Amino acid sequence: MNASADAPFRDPGRPLHERVADLLGRLTLDERIGLLHQYQAPVERLGLGAFRTGTEALHGLAWLGPATVFPQAIGLASTWDPGLVRRVGAAAADEVLAFHAKDPSGAGRNVWAPVVNPLRDPRWGRNEEGYSEDPWLTGVLSTAYARGLAGDDPRWLKTAPTIKHFLGYNNETGRCTTSSNLPPRVLYEYELPAHLPALRSGAAVAVMPSYNLVNGRPAHLSPLINDVLRAAAPGDLLVVSDAYAPANLVNEQGYHGDLAHAYAHALRAGIDSFTQDDERTGPTLGHLRRALDEGLADPAAVDDAVRHILAIRLRLGEFDPEPPYAGVGEDTVNSPAHQELAREAACRSIVLLKNDGLLPLRAPRRIAVIGQLADDVQEDWYSGTLPYAVSARDAIAARTATVFCEGVDRIALRSGGGHVTAGDGGGPLRLAAAPATGPAAASVAFDLFDWGGSAYALRAAADGRYVSEGDDGTLVNDAPGPNGWEVRQTFRFQERPDGSVVLFHIATGHYVTVADDAVLRLTADADAAAAFTVDVLRDGAAEAAALAADADVAVVVAGDHPLVNGRETEDRRDLDLPAAQEAVLRAVHAANPATVLVLTSGYPFGITWADEHVGAIVWSSHGGQEHGNALADVLFGDAEPAGRLTQTWYRSVTELPDLLDYDIIAADATYLYYLGTPLYPFGHGLGYSTVDYRDPRVEVAGGRVTVHVTVTNTGERPAEEVIQCYTRQRLSRVKQPLRRLRGFGRVRLEPGESRTVEIAFDVADLATYDTARGRLVVEDAPRKVQIGRSAKDIRVCAPLDVPGEPIPPRDPFAGPWEAIAHDEYHGVVLCPSGRERGEAVRSAEPEAWAAFRDVDFGDGAAACRLAVNALAGGTVVLRLDDPISGPVAGTCTVPPEADRYAFAEVETALTGAQGTRDLHLVFEGPEIAVATLAFTRAGRAG
User: Which SMART domains does this one have (predicted)?
Assistant: First the structure.
């Protein structure tokens, strides 16, 4: 065999499956195994080069040097503009191609974007990476971005987009060991609708599973990968593991005893590419070879994985005589067109949260620009390197006179007889005698930045560099700011009863001590921590207030640092604005009521005081290199506020369920089920004009619902309006959302202009997952269409009558039930009933139960047979009507079983199980699992 130019796999005129089959047939088993790692080995005899999966391109090309930085994903989503999001994806793809042409090994064309996890909880550390808490909107926007990345050619791919992270992933706390409980309705009505659209459309051609477990089974081993994801994709689907996740199957999760068994299982589950040990392929390939040699894995599974890999590489044109998209040059990167697009995207992503008429700014003579973020543009973990940055201060100063201050305290730290001093060359901090006044005094001065969550950063006044951990555990002032995978520039100030503080280094968990040589070092010994007195040399809030008092308008720019107090590996604990930033805002507002609050963040804040007192509030994500220009465009009225929230803004963390509670239905979570009054609702965003809604009409034909509404600009400025269409099902056998987004239309209206907007969706989109029959059903029920400016600002409604079917009572005799298909529960979690397939419910606390509503026992059920498992044994009681006081219909004794996957069948006779009743499984004992229930009709043996 050789790599002749006329080999079938090199012929782009042949069908893809023929080319894949030809190339696969030319590879030896060892060569096939060599393709299963992230760093795929070259096959020189066939002319196959090396190939690497995984180039980050979440909101522009990342990690490879200066490239256009667009707004964060949550910001792109806030545009509610799929066409714009698609153009940003296309620009990012072009820059990937330009970097790939320059360095193929450094910039691969399999890109790991977009993130499609629905944003059910704003505390998630990676909130800025996602699009929306609404699964449908997530699907629309992720499909748009993926299509931009993939390109428009039906055969050839610009890049190979990878949706991530499948499945049920919204917590960083214990992310490799926690299990996300996804009952069937949550899976089919909330999670999958976010993940599947980009795959079904063919826009995304790859998937990355998540680190967590789902219903007790590692997501990387989920049967849904093959059963659902591959079934949804129109072509071959490449499944890549997350970084170091394969080894987690043994080390962190303990799901398998050794890596050969784990990797064999992963292959069967659908993992095609193992992202493990960086570029060191040897260990992974060795475990896979052992799995084959010992019969743990079938060579056919290797062939399947390689087939998926080769299909994507062929679609990228790698083996074509004239590869498509080969002409993209370096001048594409940060080109004027991409700079203009970055400004447009940043501008249209800005959301006007509140406005009492202060905005747009009307030719103020002097603006005080204040805040930690006022003269800063931040990169996040998945940003590219900023080629340039326009801050809020830069852009406002280009338009009018400004004064500026960061509004941070300048402090000195005193211990014993000396002050902490910093040199101007990034050397170690040490205690020294207090300097005299004058330039030398700068050596004891540090600016204190509050990033929330009790995380502070110290910037040395001597050289403007931040205090960080040095290589030998000393503290040095050498960092440009908080940065890196492990941020080593943040501290907690722990107060002692005498008013002094000790400094706790967050990254290491160590304390700051003063060594014998007077140098500040880190120590694990809390008793050795040095006590410091904090002397405030300059009050940041007072300074900010003084500047604001002499200005016409004050603009306070506050928010988060993308790498501190919430990011990958770290969830947030609250929704509060950092305390020092809040103090600055209050002081400025007291000094000058004409205060605008500009929030820049990757997640919502509970800014209740600001909402009550500040006249104008705008929000944007970290907006990339053109952030300041975009912000000024909106503040000064050159652009209409076009952004809308894609996530509920709650008043407080107390309004949220437990971070690990993924059952949004039971927890009344997200705008779909939340019963309270949010600070700002899903879909919220004001404009500088006013819009009237009237004449709603609904048509149902051919399986489609078409909604018409007339909107009129009743104001004196042009209006950018996002008309949002929700539905509500008013009666149901099961709990339904209070409202659900079905579509939207975006229009620009001149003053006085009217336009009729049409929004359409499929009748099938109204389906509920019927757990009893295991399928999606459009229920026969009254509904209404709600049209308005947000989920809580509904302007007009109309009845919605669509064909449906009744959801009948449960039939206990139709076949065995899956216990996970319950309707309600208390104190149970979901767990595997088999190592590779099957799920069960397991008691996790005393008095746990699972309920099955409306069970039609007819003339009666004689017996019930359960598939059960319990380490220590126990009892399952079947009660009717009520889990606590209802009559006992039967009792099953569960034998002890050491193997958690060994389910035994036990049976109980039933008493009183007649007519239509609610049935409750009540677990008496810890860790009792039930997989299935099967009933015998009265009068029938067996």
Answer: CBD_IV, Fn3_like
